[in-house]
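Weekly structure sync, notes
Attendees: PL, DS, HV (note-taker this week)

Item 1: Pyruvate kinase
DS walked through the input record. Source organism listed as Parasponia andersonii. Sequence as pasted into the shared doc:
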Amino acid sequence: MAVASNSVRLLSQVVAKIHSSNFEKRVVGVSCNGRNLKQNAVSGVQAMVQVGLEGKSKVLDGTLEFDVVSEKELREKGFLGLRKTKLVCTIGPASCSLEDLEKLALGGMNIARLNMCHNTREWHRDVIRSIKKLNEENGFCVSIMIDTEGFQILVVDHHGAPSSVKAEEDSVWLFTAEKLDGSRPFTVQVNYAGFSEGINVGDELVIDSGMACFEVIEKIGNDLRCRCSDPGLFLPRARISFWREGKLVERNHELPTLSKKDWENIEFGISEGIDFVAMSFVNDADSIRLLKEYISAKSSRSIRVLAKIERWECLQKLEEIVEISDGVMVGRGDLGVEIPLEKIPTVQEQIVYVCRQLNKPVIVAAQLLESMVEYPTPTRAEVADVSEALRQCVDALMLSSESAIGLYGHKALSVLTMASNRMELWSRAENQQAFLNLRQLGVSLPDRIAEQICNSAAEIANNLAVDAIFVYTKHGRMASFLSRNRPNPPIFAFTNNESTRKALNLQWGVTPLLIDLSDDMEANISATISLIKSRGLLKEGDTVLVVSDMTPTLSAPVVFQSIQVKTIGDT
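Item 1 (cont.): predicted structure, written out as tokens:
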């Protein structure tokens, strides 16, 4: 069998990699008998590479929860046609009805994001329960993320003016933290009393990434009198920043990353069973660690914490922040306030690279298709921007205003879907996949073996052109290692943990499936292959690479890590 002979040659690469990683003293031997290749490691670890034919097998009792959108896409396009880049949609007034949520789910939304800056908790509760209802009744697998507001200097009132205010060139405005009664033309109230500390006459006050700009012409106590130098529109809750000689004014307000309202919103999210918390305006790794410890103490479910990279300070501590987090969101809108605009593309690429090296999923967000808030088609520049993020192999793309308040949210989602499919096809056809010299992350022997197995499995899958990769995992670790390698075949992750399933929704190329798993790995493999065959999704001659990583139990004390290549036989 051709598959067997190719895998025999590739086994030497697997063994060589294990030996090159200082495993020589732990590996006791490798035997090869044609169709079965086995390698055993002592100290409670078993690693195996096996090639064989999956023939007739009994369909074991059990159910397989397969996302209906992925299943439909698989039937229509085949294994290599499955979209690998994940899509996040921000839910707002334009997309919060049950009907609109269903349209987004059918259109490929993997994660629904709720920005806690806006709307009431009752509104958010209704949306969360609508999504869960769709998951349960319609067979979707949409994860739920909440965004914390974070502490920032914001416009809170225009004192009698309409909700949106146009600042005309050379008009003079007073910015104050004082609460004033009645209508006060050309007066803007901000939310922080110390907002003017360290600000000098001549500094530039910037509203929302440059929507309007002002020059500070006078300091009156804690207030600032400013002249509009670049006219534009600004809204309540617009963010304020200060610049001096082309650089952001660095100030330490000693403000907490999470406000009292944020902690209340996180408590609310835990009670509603969310899957992700995206932490806004992260200052350092300690704030992420504190939040993870709090969630771990409060929640019986595993809730992942994402760091939003939106501040200049984050870039100075990027690796330590990425390492402690469960994933990252590149908040390009707010980040563009903190660094010069021309640096955003290279900074984005740097963040994506660090996340890939540290095996953390990364979302590129903000203004991807901003014109589609008002228009039914994107600009060519926006499509090019999206394609560049896809070329960098980001795990996910996110719609913000486009889906929250835009007129064409569903069309914007379809643009991301089409762009993802096209760029992934081009990458595969032109062999443009971003192969990296990935750093070793594992410390213990089992972790290093698992990492090497996944690196080798991805290489074997590409070289043998298998149809799919099956991985069995309780906590998602090996599925994430496989995803990190960005293999050509899709990754189907079988787990018996609902939290793991929802977390894997953010991993590039991974389709998570919920199923009961036993301690008998061969029974798990046989059962899942039989269940998928019974749905008509596997046919005779299909080749599947199987990777397993099952945590030891009392009944099965050995960690079982293996690579198997199975050719599906006639049932």
